[in-house]
Specification:
Number of strands: 0
Largest sheet: none
Order of helices and strands: HHHHHHHHHHHHH
Shape: globular
Helix content: over 70%
Radius of gyration: 20 Å
Strand content: under 5%
C-alpha cells in the first residue's frame, strides 16, 4: 500500500469531516473551491479537491465530471481512477466501476483499496465466486488487516455463511478491538448461533468503549 494507502486515509478523513460539519458549511467549502477553480481551470489538484467536496455532498455526477476531466489529462492518476470507480458504483454504472478498479490495479498491482472495492463490487453484482476468490486473496496478502477480515465476514454473512462470518469478525476484532461496528456484527451473529457468552462479552466491551447501554438493549434482550 505505502503512499497509495493514503487514498483510503483521505477517504476516512473526508467522511469524518462531513460528519463534523454542517451541510451549509460543506456547501460553503464547495463554493470556495469552485471559485478558486474558475481562476485555474487546468489545475488537476483543484479538480480533485472540488470533486472531494462533491463526494461529501453526495453529488455523484458532478464528482464524476471532475474525475473524467482529470483522467482525460492524466489517464494513470491513481486518485482519479479510485474515486471515479466509487462514483461509477454510486451511479449504478457497475461495468465502468469495474473497469476503473482493474485499470488502477494494472498501474499499482496489489493496491489494497482497489482489490477490496473490486471484490465488494463483484459481490454486489452477483459475481459471487469471483468476489469470494478476490476477498480470500486480499486476506492472504494483508493478514494483519482488520478491514480485510471484516469485508470477508460481510460477504460471508450476506451469503448465509454465519459460522465463517463470526470467525472473521472475531479475527477483525483481534486486530482492531475498539471498532464497535465489528463488535456489534460479531455479537449479532453470536446471538443467532447461540453463543451468548461471546455476544455478551462483545456488548459489554461496546459499553466500556462508550456506546450507550440503552442503544444496545435490543441485543441484550436477545441473549439467552
Amino acid at each position: 500500500m505505502k503512499k497509495y494507502g493514503l487514498i483510503l486515509v483521505l477517504s476516512l478523513l473526508l467522511t469524518a469531516s462531513a460528519r463534523a460539519q454542517s451541510l451549509q458549511s460543506l456547501r460553503d467549502s464547495l463554493k470556495a473551491a469552485t471559485e478558486v477553480l474558475s481562476f485555474h481551470p487546468d489545475s488537476i489538484d483543484l479538480r480533485l479537491r472540488k470533486a472531494a467536496w462533491n463526494l461529501l455532498l453526495g453529488q455523484w455526477q458532478y464528482a464524476q465530471d471532475e474525475y473524467d476531466y482529470v483522467l482525460r489529462r492524466q489517464p494513470t492518476n491513481v486518485s482519479g481512477l479510485y474515486y471515479r470507480a466509487f462514483t461509477n458504483e454510486k451511479l449504478g454504472r457497475l461495468k465502468f466501476a469495474r473497469m476503473d478498479y482493474e485499470a488502477l490495479l494494472q498501474i499499482v498491482p496489489g493496491h489494497f483499496e482497489s482489490q477490496l472495492g473490486l471484490a465488494l463490487l463483484n459481490q454486489k453484482d452477483k459475481h459471487y465466486t469471483e468476489a469470494y476468490d478476490q476477498i480470500n486473496r486480499l486476506v492472504s496478502q494483508f493478514p494483519d488487516s482488520a478491514v480485510a477480515y471484516a469485508a470477508r465476514a460481510g460477504i460471508e454473512r450476506e451469503r448465509g455463511m454465519r459460522e465463517l462470518a463470526a470467525y472473521d469478525y472475531g479475527e477483525a476484532i483481534r486486530r482492531d478491538p475498539t471498532c464497535t461496528d465489528y463488535l456489534l456484527s460479531h455479537a449479532d451473529l453470536c446471538i443467532g448461533l447461540g453463543r451468548s457468552r461471546e455476544a455478551r462479552r462483545d456488548l459489554d466491551m461496546m459499553v466500556r468503549l462508550g456506546v450507550p447501554r440503552a442503544s444496545l438493549r435490543p441485543y441484550y434482550r436477545r441473549l439467552k
